[in-house]
Amino acid sequence: MPDDPQWPTEDDDIDSEVVPSEPTVQVSRPSVDQPTMRFPLAAVLATPSTQEPLRSSPVRSAPNGSRPGSGAPGGPPPVSNGHAGGNPGGKSHGPIAPEVGQPRALPVRVEPNGEQRTAEMSVPHAKTARVDQLPDGDQSWFDQPVRPDRQGPRPEPTKRVDQLQTAAPPRQEPPRPEQPRPVPPPPRPEPRQESRPEPRQESRPEPRPEPPRQEPRDLPVTGYDEEPEDRLTTDEPGKSRKPLIVVLSLLVVAALAGATVYAVNEFGGTAAVETRPPAPPAAVQPLVKAVTAGGPAPTAAGVQQALAGPAGNGALGTLTGSVIDPASGAALWQRGDTTPATPASSLKILTAAAALLSLEKTDQLSTKVVQGAEPGTVVIVGGGDPTLSGAPGRSVYPGAATLDDLVNQVKAKGPVTKVQFDLSRYVGEPLGPQWESADIAGGSVAPIVPFMLDGGRVDQANVNGVRTGSPAQAAADAFAQRVGAPGATAGSAPQGAQVLGEVKSAPVEQLVDNMMQISDNVLTEAVAREIAIKTGNEPSFAGGVKAVRDVLTKNGFDLTGASFVDGSGLSASNKIPAKLLTDVLTAAAEPTLDDPRTAKLRPLLTALPVAGGSGTLAGRYTGSAAQGKGWVRAKTGTLTGVNALAGVVVDVDGRVLVFSFMSASDRNPETEVRPALDVMAAALRGCGCS
């Protein structure tokens, strides 16, 4: 073709008169759309120096004959520079042709006059390298004409310079920190022609100032096919976007974390994410205030006026009683208070007081099983504890011992073939004077023996349920069945026999509280016998009564007119004056402990049922008596035609008053007599009798 440029040869270069004094190669940084390589032709065509110039690129030439693809079958034959075995220090690296889809390189135009000129050659968008850094022995593309219109097989695809270095590893240089370099915004890329580029008219270009650099850096040679030409960023070619994505992801995570911290601090504060320490204990404000003698003292006139109406209720029949101020000991209201009357269960106040005055509060009733006279025989020794429970969880006695515990202790000692029970702790009749056998089926009482289960109740959880007429036999049979022996029989324990098992009741103080709350006659009689044993009296009804009288008399109480035959008040023949009841309660309710009896008797007050709240008063104090609910504590008493109520009340002035009322009436006890007694006690609560 006429316009094709002529490639220079070595001879032409030697005959040239103009030789640059300093052969140099100038590589200018190409723009984004049109990379340009400038270099003096004379330097290219001159005989290369045996001294290797300083390199600005980490690329090293591969040894001759070891470059990849040399002599590969199907590829173009190697081109010689006239030296056998390759040209050391040569600047060619073999035939290079553009790959499919890549623009062709422009040829170099040589001026006829041999003047040193700089040619521009368009290369794909990639970093450039100096020519003298090409591998030795490789033929330069300047020695080979590029004829895109030749026929025949297509040349071998272009090899990137960095692909020719497999024979020798790249020189390792210490990493140097990258300095940010200002990159000018790229001009908008112009559309490129896919056809063969036309040669451009050469003109002497004006030297273009290079952009300022903070530090020269080595530029690795890259291939022509790594980056597309329509780049949207100013990043260097071949640089991956993965670091940018990683950085952006870290920024998003940091932003979310910051937003979370801000939201917590703004809306929840530290308390929303931190566990607060437990709050300090709340200050306790007692609902029951302690009473003192500092309140306004009630007067007899005031109390009499308050009780005039309630005491005149005809449903009460014959009414006796008294009201006393324990702080001063003054009698505020009296009606036949020294006349003996039937107290019914209010007599338990006397038995409880005698127990608190004579027994240790921590004393317990014990039930034992000892070794019998024959091998395999055991004897149950009754210790007077009627609260022993045969069905744990169903007992009406809090803190009761269990038969199962006793059985397990005995079974651990060996097999049992025979069971006996010893009732010698008590003497006398099992039923009190004038007790009726119908009261057993009615649930009021059971024969008093020193060994029984659940107070002789058939249904352990029913306070007023049916009781058995042979509580000791029933309890011994239950024990024998659980240890695997036949039915039990009565017997006697040998003296000094080995103890195989033992269980104990709740303390005496708790037993007293329990017998007062549910008005249990069997438990009361058992306590009376313990008083008798303690005081040296026989453990019987008569011995128990004598022991109670002896203890009360010894502690200064006047028992004139008092006559009773049991400790529970079940007998209708019992007679005591109302004043005796108020005297015992007054000693327990005195505001100070100057009286030595007071400290021992104080638990008697807490053992009294609470109006509308506990025990035998739980369902009472409604209607006209409602103002006394929670303020009245009293022991009830009920027999046929007899009702009694004795206890304490706190009036509206904060003063404690002691009272006892006993009524003998044939009116309906549940709908008339008892409610009338409740109204009298409630009147004391709201009298304001100062």
From TrEMBL:
Compositionally biased intervals (Basic and acidic residues): 146-162, 189-218
Coiled coil: none
Acidic residues compositional bias, start-end: 1-16
Swiss-Prot/TrEMBL keywords: Carboxypeptidase, Hydrolase, Protease
Gene Ontology molecular-function annotations: serine-type carboxypeptidase activity
Composition skew (Gly residues), residue ranges: 83-92
Ranges annotated as biased composition (Low complexity): 60-70
GO BP terms, alphabetized: peptidoglycan metabolic process; proteolysis
Lineage: superkingdom: Bacteria
Keyword Hydrolase listed: yes
Biased composition (Polar residues): 23-34
NCBIfam families in UniProt: PBP4
The name this protein goes by in its record: D-alanyl-D-alanine carboxypeptidase / D-alanyl-D-alanine-endopeptidase (Penicillin-binding protein 4)
Species of the source: Lentzea albida
